[in-house]
Specification:
The chain has 371 residues and is mainly beta. 4% of the residues lie in helices and 63% in strands. A hairpin with a 2-residue loop joins β14 and β15.
Length: 371
């Protein structure tokens, strides 16, 4: 950690296992308000660190088994400044064991007691930690059968008693997910992490029927994620560089009456890169004056095309942004310093951020505090 701020709460392995969850993502969801902030940042969701370091995104740590966690700490919002974030989210630091390995296979299925509906899932994963090296690989496949209105005895119009055979309450779905991660030291004082995730999903719904055939809606989505993180040291300074790229493609084909189709496709992409530098500027009698400097850039793109009944609708949107943030921390008095016992430990901090948004302008934020 790059701070002496104490955690609000610490979870031991026994505390974590008492929640009956299997991975980090499920555990944070179960904690809910215990790790949420009332200051409004990111809908109250916490910032997550791994062994006191930033990660490229939550997807990098979401699948870590809870058995690999030695301790989990929850810090107040003020710590977020020292990691280059705004002070409106709590910080969760996940500390893993030095050595750990797990191989998990899971086969699950369910059926409705009223019949007509069922689902199945098969999943396998491998996770290992050995010092600064971490490996994570997994795959999951699931399928859900359709549930028709006729299988639940819903009342149908008098003129079309068999309409329930051509309308679904629950669509037929199929999903495949593959993910992988590798983390290791590259050279002296520099370590890196690379992670990726690919997901395919399709669904089929019945919307009724016209005079000739059933009306269907087919939905296909394809999602990809790539992320990377680099950590290093230079003299008394620590630096972290992160980057990620996400792309989502969606295609929807809907049958319309009179043998016509509506085809809609959309693509959304998000890319970002961050650099964080932390170190000491100078030393005072009570301690070192610390500085945290962060620079970031990001881009969002969205495009869509819809064609139906001879009408085309298109959208093409994008936004770029760049930001620079600086946070300074200065100790004024220390319990260890002579003549300062009456004051105890006293420190002040100040932060400023400039953010440039395309098609808008520049936003400025600043803050200060004492502890």
């Amino acid at each position: 950690m790059v701070s002496d701020i104490r955690p609000e709460r610490t979870f031991s392995p026994l505390d974590i296992q008492a929640y009956g969850v299997s991975n980090v993502g499920e555990f944070l969801q179960a904690l809910g308000p215990q790790v949420s902030s009332s200051r409004g940042g990111e809908n109250g969701r916490p910032i997550t660190l791994l062994n006191g370091r930033r990660v490229s995104g939550f997807a990098e740590i979401a699948q870590i088994p809870i058995e690999a966690i030695e301790t989990m700490e929850v810090f107040p919002e003020e710590l977020a400044l020292k990691y280059g974030y705004r002070p409106d989210q709590k910080v969760v630091n996940i500390i893993t064991f030095e050595r750990f390995r797990s191989q998990i296979g899971e086969l699950a299925g369910s059926v409705a007691t009223e019949g007509g509906y069922g689902s199945g899932r098969i999943q396998g994963s491998y996770f290992a930690i050995r010092g600064n090296t971490r490996l994570d690989a997994g795959a999951e496949y699931s399928r859900t059968s359709p549930l028709l209105e006729s299988e639940r005895d819903l009342v149908q119009p008098a003129a079309n008693r068999d309409a329930g055979n051509f309308r679904t309450l629950v669509p037929e779905t199929e999903r495949l997910t593959v993910n992988g991660l590798v983390s290791a030291a590259l050279i002296d004082n520099v370590s890196s992490t690379f992670n990726g995730r690919f997901e395919l999903e399709s669904s089929r719904s019945l919307l009724g029927r016209d005079e000739n055939s059933p009306l269907e809606r087919d939905t296909h989505t394809r999602a990809a994620h790539l992320g990377t993180t680099f950590h290093g040291e230079a003299s008394t300074w620590l630096w972290t560089a992160t980057g990620s790229y996400d792309h989502l493609h969606t295609r929807i084909v809907t049958d319309l009456e009179e043998a016509t189709l509506n085809r809609a496709t959309s693509d959304s992409a998000y890319a970002n890169a961050n650099i964080l530098i932390t170190g000491s500027l100078l030393k005072l009698a009570a301690g070192a004056v610390a500085a945290t400097i962060r620079g970031s850039v990001e881009r969002r793109d969205f495009s869509s095309v819809s064609r139906g009944r001879g009408i085309d609708q298109r959208a093409d949107l994008s936004r770029d942004s760049g930001a620079v943030q600086a946070n300074f921390y200065a100790p004024i008095a220390s319990r260890r310093a002579k003549g300062a016992a009456t004051l105890g430990a006293l420190s002040v901090n100040a932060n400023v951020e400039l953010e440039r948004l395309s098609d808008f302008g520049t936003l400025t934020a600043f803050g200060y505090g004492a502890n």
